[in-house]
Specification:
Blueprint (H helix, E strand, L loop, with lengths): L3 E2 L6 H10 L5 H11 L26 H10 L2 H7 L7 H15 L3 E9 L5 E11 L2 E14 L11 E2 L7 H10 L20 E12 L17 E7 L6 E2 L2 E4 L10 E3 L6 H14 L4 E9 L2 E11 L3 H12 L4
Parallel strand pairs: 1-8, 4-6, 6-7, 7-12
Antiparallel strand pairs: 2-3, 3-4, 4-5, 9-11, 10-12, 11-12
Helix pairs in contact: 2-5
């Protein structure tokens, strides 16, 4: 495997984020800034998404920089709204961040509305119901992290697999397009809708992670040309990583590029010792930020999932469930 450099030019998302949002310090404000300004994960014009991919309109982002700077100086209201707990899931965290902003923009009608048919049967959930541009809109919202393991077998979105191998980008999007975005048509949903839904779309943010050999393939999967991306490598290949400092990113810190104190970082030997101990009892990949130090602050320059040495084989088996002939 080629050396993974901390300043590798294939990862522009970090540099762009630090240039615009480097002055922000609160981690939740930084996460919100990333959600609102990061490139969309998927290309809305790709035919496989059927015209159902949403993007944040410019009109909804007016005044964003000044507003976030104000929140960063006093983030207490945001912290209270988020009510982050140790068990908070990343998806729910991202949804609450987005809801906080949509409420600020006064376009949010409802958030997280469950639709049930009877007491014990849940049909689905409206992530966001909005009024914007004269339309009543249903948004499904997803923040996803997938690793490409196609081994040259094809360009279907199912070759992007989740770190824990539980799902694929293709399976997730099929669920959204074929089921979740149709929720407003279900009879049980009507009680929650003050008027007919004019538009149902998916707003999808996230990061995709590639082995170095697959960097040239990234447009073939219906992804946006500018989406945020990182690398993945096996534990054995961490010998080839080179950066000033490293940090293991907890799940709720997966959104925005990291900005850390030196005390929150480590050198490569400490990282490798941690990973060696970790993979003895756990198979979940670990997200690591590669960092450079400026004025005593460590800034993320690239990121990658470090996977167990047998992960590629297990990922291949997961893909075969979706593509038996692959």
């Amino acid at each position: 495997m080629p050396a993974v450099q901390a300043n590798k030019p294939d990862y522009p998302c970090q540099a762009q984020f630090h240039k615009r949002w480097g002055h922000l310090n609160d981690p939740h404000v930084r996460a919100l800034a990333w959600l609102l300004s990061a490139p969309d994960l998927l290309d809305p014009h790709a035919p496989q998404w059927q015209g159902k991919i949403a993007t944040l309109p410019d009109s909804m982002l007016d005044g964003l920089d000044a507003w976030l700077a104000t929140i960063d100086r006093d983030p207490a209201e945001l912290h209270l709204y988020l009510d982050v707990q140790p068990f908070t899931r990343l998806g729910r965290y991202a949804e609450k961040l987005m809801a906080f902003y949509l409420e600020h923009r006064r376009v949010l009608v409802a958030h997280g509305i469950q639709v049930q048919a009877g007491k014990n049967s849940t049909i689905g959930e409206f992530d966001f119901l909005l009024r914007s541009g004269g339309q009543f809109i249903h948004w499904e919202f997803a923040t996803k992290f997938y690793l490409l393991e196609s081994s040259g077998a094809g360009s279907d979105a199912d070759y992007f697999v989740g770190p824990n191998l539980a799902d694929t980008l293709g399976a997730k999007m099929h669920k959204i397009l074929d089921r979740q975005l149709l929720l407003s048509t279900h009879p049980a949903a009507q009680v929650h809708l003050p008027e007919p839904v004019n538009l149902a779309q998916a707003l999808v943010k996230g990061w995709l992670f590639y082995p170095d050999s697959a960097q040239q393939e990234m447009r073939a999967f219906g992804t946006s040309i500018a989406h945020c991306r990182g690398f993945w490598c096996s534990f054995s290949d961490t010998l080839y990583m080179h950066a000033e400092r490293y940090a293991i990113l907890p799940r709720l810190q997966w959104l925005a590029p990291a900005k850390l104190s030196l005390q929150q970082t480590m050198e490569r030997p400490a990282l490798q010792n941690f990973l060696a101990d970790y993979f003895v009892h756990d198979t979940m990949p670990v997200l690591v930020a590669l960092l450079e130090v400026k004025d005593g602050i460590a800034l993320e320059t690239s990121r990658g999932f470090i996977v167990p040495d047998d992960w590629r084989n297990r990922a291949g088996q997961r893909i075969k469930l979706a593509h038996p002939r692959a």
